[in-house]
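for ur thesis appendix - Sodium/proline symporter. copy paste whatever u need, i formatted it the way the template wanted (i think)
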Amino acid sequence: MSVSNPTLITFVIYIAAMVLIGFMAYRSTNNLSDYILGGRSLGSVVTALSAGASDMSGWLLMGLPGAIYMSGLSESWIAIGLIVGAYLNWLFVAGRLRVQTEHNGDALTLPDYFSSRFEDKSGLLRIISAVVILVFFTIYCASGIVAGARLFESTFGMSYETALWAGAAATIAYTFVGGFLAVSWTDTVQATLMIFALILTPIIVLLATGGVDTTFLAIEAKNPDNFNMLKNTTFIGIISLMGWGLGYFGQPHILARFMAADSVKSIANARRISMTWMILCLGGTVAVGFFGIAYFSAHPEVAGPVTENHERVFIELAKLLFNPWIAGVLLSAILAAVMSTLSCQLLVCSSALTEDFYKTFLRKNASQVELVWVGRLMVLLVALIAIAMAANPNNRVLGLVSYAWAGFGAAFGPVVLISVIWKHMTRNGALAGILVGAITVIVWKHFELLGLYEIIPGFIFASLAIYFVSKMGAPTAGMVERFDAAEKDYNLNK
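the 3d part is after this line
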């Protein structure tokens, strides 16, 4: 690996810029609210792009293009499900959650919100939801570190151990120093880089394969079923792929963006920006994998790496079709996708440990400076545990991403959604929803029942548990009063 390698230089410049943003954010971080939610100061553009970038990890530029390359358009159902789920999340949850968290003790985290919303004096709701966050997100963080390591390993020929630390170090640095503002500002840069890569690459591949007609003929010649959306699919298979969209209602790192918006008025504009970004990115991702079929069937002599690992289709197309400097920028987009999601996950874990355990149970009167530094140390602690989990190059942690997504979607999704639209939900209903959702996902996954993605039964059973258990009791007058005040505030300002 030569130091003059344009791709290496591009990566170094990119990483240095992200760390610099972290130090800029450091100057705006004065208390725990600043560190965890940026002082609720995000405008619509940063809210929109940060929510998008924190959602789309390395799978956007590696996993999904690879699946489309292997199987054709039948794999695109997941993209449709994600778009529908994300839109409904922006429409029904974003604005209401922003207002409800403010009216319920100015909550900074989801466990904090659940505890205040349902007047849980026992601390049980806070503890259970914080444990769910820590367990699933530590696994999630490890998968992000593995993805980053694979990118460095394949791009620069590093050993897995070196690549592991190289991929994780920059993300840890700017999250540790700058907190939520650093994560949100870097997410905005990373989202811009990702959409640039995913619009430019399919256009250049299309030109390299002779235009639309020639490309489509080549794809059809390879396998006519590549155009068939129903190829090798079943009703349950399509529902399972579409079911990924349900996960959005319960992802703490995405919901944190809604909570951090400067006002409800920003949400509508943020929704339009975020959904446009998401549709263009997912469309570009599908196009990269689809047009890649035509390119590599026309150039079998360079298809070896993609044949060996179909998830390398974007990486190989970037290397083959672009000037090394441009290729470096495009490959940085994969790093951006990994870093943006990993940084959000580290921060959510840190906030759960700091706000929901340290401040609540150990140091109720801790100063803001102390809490910010505890938050920083928690980022470091979670990152080191995640690196240790990712250290085995043969680990299967990447396969757990869909499991973690289902876990959050089923355990938190119904609780968050119903809590912002139904005033009669109770504390016991919330507890039942979290436990039933999480347990259903674990049991369903273990027995692989009906071949159905576990998030769907988990979401349904958790919703039913919330409704029926809430009906057995009644919310307090204070809970109803705060809900009504928040709903009135939302309707006046949306």
